[in-house]
Task: structure prediction
Amino acid sequence: MNTQNLRSTRTKLSNATLGALPKYIVTPRYDRTALTPGIVHIGVGNFHRAHQAWYLHRLMQAGDALDWAIVGAGVRPFDEAQRQKLAQQDYMTTLVELSPDGRSAEVVGSMIDYLPIEPGNGPLIARMAQRDIRIVALTVTEGGYYIDPVTKAFDAQHPDMIHDAANPNTPKTAFGAMVAALRARRDADLGPFTGMSCDNLQGNGEILRQTVVSLARMSDPVLAEWINDACTFPNSMVDCIVPATGPQELELIQTFGVDDTVPVTHENFRQWVIEDAFCAGRPAWDKAGATFTDAVHDFEAMKIRILNGGHQIIAGAGEMLSLKTIADCMGNDSVAALLSKVTHTEIVPLVKAVPGMTPDAYTDLIARRFSNPEIVDTTRRVAFDGASRQPGFIVPTIRDGLAAGTPVEGLALVSAVWARMCEGTREDGSTIEPNDPFWDDLNTVAKAAKTDPKAWLAQKQYYNDLASEPRFATAFCEWLEMIWRDGLERTIAAYLAR
Result:
């Protein structure tokens, strides 16, 4: 592909200009004006457009699933800016695949609308309540399901849940809107829809069911039972590294000769494993490469423990050492060796193999994916929201390791690095800007933990009773003290030498 001098001739992305785009950009072969909706997707971020929307687009390229087009949605005021950008290009997105061997671009056209963002979520409720919507899917981040990060129980005391229960017709949240739409569907005898989480949560379908049914029960127990009986909430595992879009990505898309204000870059790997439990039908995503199986838990355990856990192993260290991207982290001998040892010795022994992949082979695959120099995935993005990701991706492995008698020293070091990072300064003295919904609280405790490491483990919302587990707590305290005294790289070296 020759992309030189295309910046001056780039074409604004729209239905009318698809034929004018450079021939090396793959464009929809289907008639987008003939598509009809079947899915409302809440949370139309980069990951959704590079993953779920792409799988559906691939089916449409083969002439299939033309009645399953996506209606995008959001529930927060900031979603409106994204909606307007996508509307200006007829809801299409240019995906740029970044492989170590080269780059390619494809326009995805499986989304045909994006609902207005309004207080009370009236447009969203009304659209989900229509008969043609058979799946409501979500990517709202791991921390967005109103659950206790340790116990995974529904948080009925959260102000958003209290509001939605008291105002069921004008809810704040996606879950309140789903409850309201399901009430309308039941009352109109339109039947249920499938609720499908596409977030990195183990048992994400079960968690979505818990949130929706529990919220409904707070205001209408009869409706809650109908939802629990009539709706399905399949578990799924999603996997694709998708960086945030920033100035570099906006600059990159111009070299392809297309003017797209919300392009998405992604790696040359995707995986989607889904439980086949859809109460109102589904697209044949398996024809586009997805896997339907009753063993989703094994796939998601491997991915969450090794990939998502691996991200947490290197992101905190990368922040402390001023490494800007995940590829930079993998280019640092200390950080790469930390990832390898912790994963192979402390995570892999607790993970089951899945058809076609052993945990050790998956670990090596993840290391190659993390090392892809074409993927500009910032360390800051991966380190975001440790308050959800550490208890979600690291702490469960610590618990399993303690129960199984396998090593946990490296995972204790990972926790200590998180505690050090939350103090808010890097080893070069630069400031780490707030990067967590609970940053102020974490920062306060991290400063106290500088002289009293046990103060960090006293945060039961993340660690529950791990402070009373000597194998973990002793190692954690020793590592945090060593990081503050000797620096991170010497501490990592001490761990690697054991």
